[in-house]
TrEMBL record:
Binds 1 zinc ion per subunit. Belongs to the histidinol dehydrogenase family. The keyword Nuclease does not apply. The lineage of its organism: Bacteria, Bacillati, Bacillota, Clostridia, Peptostreptococcales. Signal peptide: none annotated. This is Histidinol dehydrogenase. Substrate binds at residues 228, 250, 253, 319, 352, 406, 411. It comes from Intestinibacter bartlettii. Pfam families: Histidinol_dh (PF00815).
Amino acid sequence: MKILKSSGFKNKETEKIVKEQVSAIIEDIKINKDEALKKYNLKFDNNDRSVINVSKEEIEEAYKQVDEEFIQNLKVAAKNIENFAMAQKESFDNNFEKEIYPGVILGQKHIPVTSCLAYVPGGGYPLFSTALMLIIPAKVAGVKRVVACSPTMKSIPKINPKTLVAMDIAGADEIYATGGVQAVAAFTYGTESIKPVDIIVGPGNKYVTEAKRQCYGTVGIDFVAGPSEVLIIADETANPTYIAADVLAQCEHDLNARGILVTTSEKFGLEVSQKVDEMLETLPTKNIAKPSWDNNGEIILVDSLEEAVQISNEYAPEHLEINVENNEGIIEDLVNYGSLFIGEYSAEVFGDYVSGTNHTLPTLKASRYTGGVWVGTFIKTCTHQVLNKDAVKSLGPVAINMATEEGLHAHANAARVRVEDK
C-alpha cells in the first residue's frame, strides 16, 4: 500500500465540553420545558416563535414560494423512495406461529413503533431530501404518528419553504419549527406543546449527535452519526473525471467530510488528484470542499483489488463506490458499508436524492454493525408464546431445575405451582 495523498483528518473537537453543554441543555428542557425550548430556539437560531407547531397555512404558503418543477422533482424522488420502502416492507410479511415442542406454540409479529421524529437538519443547506428519506419509510412502515422538525432560517423564524414542502409531500403528520439539542430533548422528554416520541431518526451536527447519544434509552435512535464519507475503489478503467466529481460531491458537505480513493493504478490516482484541483477552481462551494479535501481526503495506492477490499472493510465507509473492470469479482467480499454504488454511472448523488435507496447512513465505522435508515428502523419484531397443560408437565421440571440452579427460587416456584396443579 502506498499513500498518494494522505489525510490530516483529526477530531479536534473537545468532546468533554460538547458533552457538558449538551447535558446542561437537556436538563433545562426536562425541567423548564417550553420555556427552555423557546429560549434556545432564540439563542441558537434567532427563532422567536411563540407557537412551535407549523400550521396548515404556513405549509400552503411554502408551496407558493417554490416553483412547480421543484415540486414535481420532489414527487419523482418521493415515489422512488416509497416504492423501494414498500419492497422492503414485504420482507416483514412473515408473521408466524409454530409448534416447536408438543404443546408449545411460539410466534412473532412485526409491529411498527407508535411515533417517531424525523430530524431534518438546517445548517448551511436546506436538506429537503432528508425529509423524504426519513418520513416516507416511517409512513410505509405503519407508524401512526410521524413528526418532523427542522431549525428555522436565520433570517426569519420559519422552516425553509423547500424543506417544508418536502415534509408535506412525504406525509408528515406534525411539523415543528425547532432544531438542535433542544429539539432532541423536547421530543425525548416532552414539553407543554410537544408530545414525546418513541424513536428519533436523522443526522445533525456534533451537538445534535451528542444529544441523541445522551437521550438514547429514554428514546430510540437510528444510530450516532459523524461526518459524511465516501470511499471509492477504482482501477485504470475508471473515468477520472467521474471519480473526481464524486469525491468533491462528498467534500462539499462540510469541513469534516471525507473523500477517499483506493486505486490499483498510480497513474489513475494522480489523474484524479489533478482533476479535483481543476474542478475546485470553478466550484461554487470551494470554500468548504477545498479544505475538506486538503485536510481529510486520501488517495491510497494498492497492489490488488483484494487489498482494496480489505482496506474498504476496515474503513467501513458510509458510501462505497465500485468502479473496476470486474465488479462481480469483489462485491461478495465487501461486507462493511452503508450503501453500495456499483459501476461508473451509479454515483452517490443518485442515492442521495432520487434513485430510491436511503441516504441516512452509518458513519464512523458504524456500518460494521448496522445499515442505514430503512423501513425496519421503525418496526419491532416481537415474540409470543402459548403453552398448554401437557407442555407444562413436560417442560416444567426442566424449568424448575434450571431456575433452582441459578438460585432463582421464585422462578422455580412459578413453574412448580403449575406442574403440581391438579
